Amino acid sequence: MVSIIFLIIKMIRISLSESERAELKRLRLERNTNIGERAYYVLLSDAGKSAPEIAEQLNRNIITIRQWLNRYLTDGSNGLKTKKASGRPARKAPAIELHLKELLDKSPQEYGYQESGWQINLLRDWFQKQGIIAGERTMAKLLKKYGYVYKRFSKTIPENAPSPAEKKAKVNEIVGLIKQKIPEDIEILFADESHFSNQPYVSRGWFKCGEKKQ
User: Is residue 27 part of a domain?
Assistant: First the structure.
């Protein structure tokens, strides 16, 4: 006995209003996503083309054409947008955000680091010690999200800082002590220049936009 199965596929017909047609023509010009081509499917259907004819004309899979035509019938222009995959909710970001502001409000030196300003590698190191592996891009994204920027400290002279003359005198004192310990018949060759500066190196750190730290 032979069973015969008839598969009936419902014909998709779309009839647009003037405003809907104008909106789809505008979307047709979209170049950064696939929504422009999907809008074209709908416009061709409105022009009287069937789904198989559209698939043949554009060399696309018939299933793909029917999918987007049906989504337009169900959700309008919003149905032509690519839906984001649901996936698992992010777990790291909330845990990082919980501690990030507290860290940035304080100096890294309060947490045992030598630097004066927070660097991404320092922040990642601190979180790693808490058992949280934070990627560099994730960290930078969160910092920018909360309005932090990476910039230099403002220069300032501490109250107990020695004057340039005192610094020069101390350098000369150290050089004199070295000369006393080196015999005169030893020749010293330098592979690179030695440079002493009265201006300290100004490091960078992540600060709130518009905030100045010294």
Answer: yes
